[in-house]
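Thread: Newbie trying to understand structure tokens

Hi all, I'm a second-year student working on a class project, and my supervisor (Dr. K.) asked me to get a predicted structure for one chain before our next meeting. I've only ever worked with sequences, so writing a 3D structure as a token string is new to me. If someone could post the tokens and maybe explain what I'm looking at, I'd be very grateful. Here's the chain:
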Amino acid sequence: MQTKFSRRTIVKGGLTVGAFVPAFAFFAGNANAAGLPPLDVGDPTAKALGFLTDATKVDAASNPTFKAGQKCATCAQYQGKASDATAGCNIFAGHSVPAAGWCKVWAQKPGA
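---
Reply by user tm_fold:
Sure, no problem. This is what the structure looks like when written as tokens:
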């Protein structure tokens, strides 16, 4: 027996699935953030971007863009809440970073 689907059924199904994919990715990403390995400061990308686990130890002379109060928790790339001790980072995919950390890619989180 052969089943036929109308074009309308296929389009409606595609739109329905497409609406749920971002929501699924959001919840899956938040659940996986806790299981990410911490970023090693010896990682080549971390070294290139001047990553430190403690923003209070940033040498302002060698990092002229650094300003007091900047840290991962207030960065737009930080994927967690400001109250999270660690969370994922858009720059260091597959790793978690401490909320108190800092790197040269720091950008003000909107609304923070």
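A couple of things are worth pointing out once you decode it. The longest strand covers residues 86-88. The chain has one domain: 7-98. Feel free to ask follow-ups in this thread.
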